[in-house]
Write a structure and sequence with these properties.
- The protein is α+β, with helices and mostly antiparallel strands and 434 residues long.
- It has 2 domains: 3-332, BirA Bifunctional Protein, domain 2; 341-433, 3-Layer(aba) Sandwich (Rossmann fold), CATH 3.40.50.
- Helix content is 34%, strand content 28%.
- The protein is built from 15 helices and 23 strands.
- The chain has helices at 21-28, 44-63, 77-83, 85-88, 111-121, 167-187, 232-236, 240-248, 254-257, 287-291, 315-325, 353-368, 382-392, 402-406, 425-433, and strands spanning 32-36, 39-42, 67-68, 74-76, 94-97, 103-106, 130-139, 154-164, 192-196, 206-213, 219-224, 251-253, 270-285, 296-297, 303-304, 307-314, 327-328, 331-332, 343-347, 373-376, 396-400, 409-414, 420-424.
- The strands form 6 sheets. Strands 3, 7, 8, 9, 10, 11, 12, 13 and 16 form a 9-stranded mixed β-sheet that branches. A 5-stranded mixed β-sheet has the order 20-19-21-22-23, sandwiched between helices. It has a 3-stranded antiparallel β-sheet with strand order 4-6-5.
- It is globular and about 80 Å long.
- The mean pLDDT is 95.
- Bound molecules: adenosine-5'-triphosphate (ATP) and magnesium ion (MG).
- Residues 209, 277, 280 line the site of magnesium ion.
Length: 434
Amino acid sequence: MRLSRYFLPVSKETPADAQIASHRLMLRAGLIRQTSAGIYAWLPIGLRVLRKIEQIVREEQNRAGAVELLMPTIQSADLWRESGRYDAYGPEMLRFADRHDREMLYGPTNEEMITALFRDAAKSYRDLPRTLYHIQWKFRDEVRPRFGVMRGREFLMKDAYSFDLDEAGARASYDAMFVAYLRTFARMGLQAVPVRAPTGPIGGNLSHEFHILADTGESQLFYDAALEDVTREELLSADASTIARMTSLYAMEAEEHEKVTDCPVPAERLHTRRGIEVGHIFYFGTKYTEAMGMTVQGPDGQALYPQMGSYGIGVSRLVGGVIEASHDEAGIVWPEAIAPFKVGLINLRADDAACAAASDELYAKLETAGVEVLYDDRDERGGAKFAGMDVIGVPWQLIVGPKGLAAGVVELKNRKTGERQELSIEAALARLAG
Ligand code: ATP
Ligand code: MG
């Protein structure tokens, strides 16, 4: 992508209402713009990151055996009356009427809709188990939308729903999602801590929240320091024994921790930090299948209510969450797996014919090799170009200048380490396209 043709409104100012680094950086680096309170437009570079995160989430859901579909954002109030949640949900739900005065809502979640869909399709125990998911925009009219996309009103969520014959099956579906979550967050370069979550007054049996540790998180966590020692490799190859180990390690939100009278973790191993909730998994048994009359015929011919679970990931929140976990004074430092571009190609002298020709050629070769490259071909000062690429956080900067070119070299800078290296054009290409 040529920057001269792109839409990347990088602003130097730090907006006053942006209290945390990720919010400031997302505005400064041109990822998002607020269009009304808690509602954002995703600008091209922000959209690229959002799509990459979405894709990792999708791959891990598929790998866990979940099946993707897409449900609408708009739902009917009648559907929610079936479960009894229409009145219970409260002012967070955005309600409105269509031209025929039918009551509608913008979905904050999809338990009712998926249960209704599955109810109409599944007749027998042979239709179980199934886990279905979609990645769709949600609306929750949050009292205090803040921190940019971290607590928006409109936000992108992956929500999966499992249907099982019995409790043991539901537990297996829950564990499959648990593993998927560990892998998903590890692939994004995040260390997510599973925290045992309260299940609320109705139904709920088992629930975990996944938090990334960050000083700007909205939750205060207390946890066994051993959770920090779990390695990325272990998370990527997570299995049942990983779940057993991680769930045996103490981790609670402050409110729950305060209720615990005999904390099993010795004081020196009890760490406390703030966390950002990026995922939540929930086993709630037959709560919705009973309320909404969803049965299948069991192996013995008797009708039974399937056991359900639901599993959310805050896809748009993760964009902010990753930045909270990975930035420095100069800007964002993207992990390569979700970077909007792999390479930022900087032509230091757009007015120099040799520099422009060499840069154009490098750009063409990188593009041909399938490398995602953002090419700063604008007629700007070098300093501004460096600062711009640093804010955007592209992992590799490839710098073409007149002096180097005369000596047959270009410069390659690693955004994360700041390490710089002079290489021949061929060596740089081989390195980046390899
Ligand atoms: P929170 O406690 O942060 O309000 P929640 O418990 O209400 O979240 P869930 O219903 O568990 O949220 O939704 C699943 C996931 O969706 C959350 O783990 C979070 O990552 C994301 N999410 C929830 N609310 C928002 C929001 N307002 N903005 C962005 N992401 C959100
Ligand atoms: Mg939650």
